[in-house]
Each structure stands twice: as structure tokens, then as C-alpha cells.
Design goal:
Mean pLDDT: 82
Largest sheet: 2 strands, antiparallel
Distance between the termini: 47 Å
Low-confidence stretches: 8-24, 155-175
CATH class: Mainly Alpha
Structural class: mainly alpha
Strand order of the largest sheet: 1-2
Order of helices and strands: HHHHHEE
Number of helices: 5
Number of strands: 2
Length: about 180
């Protein structure tokens, strides 16, 4: 009985320790948000997806394809599309976008526009996993730029940084939570 309990607790600890690594942010919410870093990550994921697509195409054209390398590039493409989707879903859609008051038409319109852009990103990330069509990468870049412009705008944002012991520091490129 004691051995089963210990084994179960160890298994639970392993699952808990490894499952949080897959998420784009902590989801506590901790109040520590680095929106520009998330945008940079999104852009890097698209670049990696595109490179993977090109490598898959190139390696597939060889007289004697190296299937091991092709599989590795497919796996890489899939992983980065998943990471992009996780940032969109777990960071922006669940933590950063706040539903607007329906009586505020301008805020409601902005909310729906940003939600639509994020949803379109998810669709193109899914299509990038299904194909090697680099047009999905071009569309992802366009959607990220459109969302970034809408989301960050020109307003000054505030950010809580752990090194400042919770003091709020004004920062030009961070969105207020």
C-alpha cells in the first residue's frame, strides 16, 4: 500500500513538473508579462517553420532522400507550429485579451478584431503543420504584424518585473494587464 502511494506521488510529481514546460506562460496569473518577447517568439517560430518546410522540400527532391532527416524536419515544423499555437492560446487568448464591455462599440470592435486575428493565426499554424506551403508562413507573418499593431498600439504600457520586488515600472512596449 505504502509503495503504491509513493509510486503514485512520484508519477504525479513528474507529470506536474513536465506538463508546465509545454505552456506559453505560468497561468497563475503572475502579473509578469513580456508582450514584446512573445511577439519575437512568434516571429522566430514562423521562421523555423518556413526553414523546415524548405528543408523538407529540398531533401524530398534528392535522388535518394534521407528519410531520417526529412522526418526530423517534419517533427521540427510540427513542434514550432505547436509552440506558436500555445503562445497564441495560453498567453494572448486566455491571459492578455480581456473581453470588452458590449456597450463600448470601439473597444468591442477592437476585441473582436484581435480575437479574429489570433484565431486566424491558429488556423494557419494548423495548415502549416499539414503542408509545406510557405504561403502559410507569409500569412502568419502578416497576421502577427496586424495583431501586434492592434494590440500594442502606441500607448505606454506598464509591467511588473520580479527584480523590482513587485514595483511597477513604466515601459514603452508593454501592455497594461
Amino acid at each position: 500500500m505504502k509503495r503504491k502511494l509513493v509510486t503514485g506521488l512520484v508519477a504525479l510529481a513528474i507529470v506536474a513538473a513536465t506538463s508546465s514546460a509545454a505552456l506559453a506562460h505560468c497561468q497563475i496569473p503572475c502579473g509578469i508579462y513580456d508582450d514584446p518577447a512573445r511577439f519575437k517568439l512568434l516571429e522566430e517560430h514562423v521562421t523555423t517553420i518556413e526553414k523546415s518546410m524548405k528543408q523538407i522540400e529540398s531533401l524530398s527532391q534528392e535522388q535518394k532522400p534521407n528519410w531520417n532527416q526529412i522526418v526530423r524536419w517534419v517533427t521540427n515544423k510540427e513542434a514550432h507550429a505547436d509552440k506558436l499555437s500555445e503562445i497564441v492560446t495560453f498567453y494572448f487568448m486566455t491571459q492578455r485579451l480581456k473581453p470588452a464591455d458590449p456597450s463600448d462599440k470601439e473597444a468591442s470592435s477592437k476585441y473582436l478584431r484581435e480575437l479574429t486575428l489570433l484565431h486566424q493565426m491558429l488556423l494557419h499554424a494548423m495548415k502549416a503543420k499539414q503542408t509545406v506551403d510557405v504561403e502559410h508562413c507569409a500569412k502568419l507573418r502578416e497576421l502577427i504584424a496586424d495583431f501586434k499593431n492592434s494590440y500594442l498600439g502606441t500607448q505606454s504600457h506598464r509591467h511588473v518585473h520580479p527584480k523590482t520586488s513587485g514595483q511597477i515600472q513604466p515601459m514603452q512596449s508593454f501592455r497594461q494587464s
